[in-house]
Amino acid sequence: MSPIDRARQVVVEPLPGRDGLLLAKTIALGRELQHGSNGEPFVLTVRYVQNYLELPDQAQASAIVRQLERRGFLHCERRGTKTTPKYTRATDSLALLIGGAKVAMSYRPICDSWILARSKMKYFGAYPSGFLERARALLGVTCGDSVLQVCSGRVRDYPYRGFEEHD
Amino acid sequence: MDLDASLNPNFNLDANDPQSYTEVRSRAMADERSTKGVLADPPYNQEWAQHYAMNGSLPTSNNIVKYSVEHLLPIDGRVGVPSMEWQRYPKHKVKEVAVAVYVGNGNIGRTFAVFEKIA
User: Fold this and answer.
1) CB-CB under 8 Å, A114 with B34
2) Which residues of chain A make contact with B97, given a CB cutoff of 8 A?
3) Do A106 and A134 contact (CB within 8 A), yes or no?
4) Closest Cα partner for B39 from A47, A166, A68?
5) Domain ranges of chain B
6) What is the CATH number that goes with domain A3-98?
7) B34, B44, B78, B100: most buried by Cβ count inside 10 Å?
């Protein structure tokens, strides 16, 4: 039995479409549990939903972990290697082992498949239709952020969303 | 950033040269607007590279990932590259996700890999 299975289980349920509230709720509960656990490890499992930007599970999970770390009450020790994590959980949730100073999270090297329409631009190698918006969401940037387009070609003429003012 | 000046890129630089990323970073710092992410679309192989005006110059996705992480991106910054192979990347400096991308029946499959700088 792994440390995660032995630890106390706590689940945070999201409010659909309200990821900010989910994060705040997670942080508040994590702080409360940390103070009340007397050093006993516990698993905080966040059941999350994809937000309107279609951020992937991995990116959203990473964002929550980072926020918890920045607030100073979670010290993460990622275990295992990239391909063989020591602890794994169901793919639809993020599990944190807090108090024991260890963290485990769902890990999916292949997180999605996109079947897209062909490019509508007359330029060899142009991005497929809908690719740029999805790719940008995976980068975790907003429309106001600056993204460097390398080997950009005619990306300025891309007819769909995804190329922004500061790119 | 593109090597083909006829496309009027903001940065007419070589993606295979680490100095290019340093220069982009300097410009971004001068504008007080740091680069939060890198999205690259290099030719997948030498055969594909022949279709471009730069006469077969092939910036590799390995170099783009490596130089972006080492010379340009802040911690938490991400670089995404579609490719037909899994990139080499700086060990212990990134974590990654991958998305399979397909366009139409009978067409090639690509892997869009995103690497996040963690150290």
Assistant:
1) no
2) 56, 58-59, 108-109, 111, 138
3) no
4) A166
5) 5-117
6) 3.30.110
7) B78
> Would you kindly state where each structural domain of chain A is located, as residue ranges?
3-98, 113-167
**What six digits make up the tokens of B82?**
């579609």
Tens-level pLDDT at each residue, chain B (119 residues): 888 888 888 888 888 889 999 999 998 888 888 888 999 988 888 888 888 877 667 888 889 999 999 888 888 888 999 888 888 888 767 767 777 788 877 788 888 888 888 77
Q: Residue B15: list chain A partners with CB under 8 A.
A: 150-151
Q: Do A152 and B59 touch (CB under 8 A)?
A: no
Contact A152 B9 (CB under 8 A): yes
The SS3 assignment for B57 reads: coil
- Joined together, the tokens standing for residue B96 give 């990654």
Residue B103 is nearest to which of A116, A124, A132, comparing CB atoms?
A116
Closest listed residue to residue B10, CA positions, set A157, A149, A121, A124? A149
Helix (H) or strand (E) segment spanning residue B78: strand B78-83
Q: In what order do the strands lie in the sheet with B94-103?
A: A110-116, B94-103, B109-117, B78-83, B35-40, A146-150
CA neighbor of A63 nearest in space, from B95, B98, B91, B6: B95
Strands of the sheet with A8-12, listed across from one edge: A8-12, A42-46, A94-98
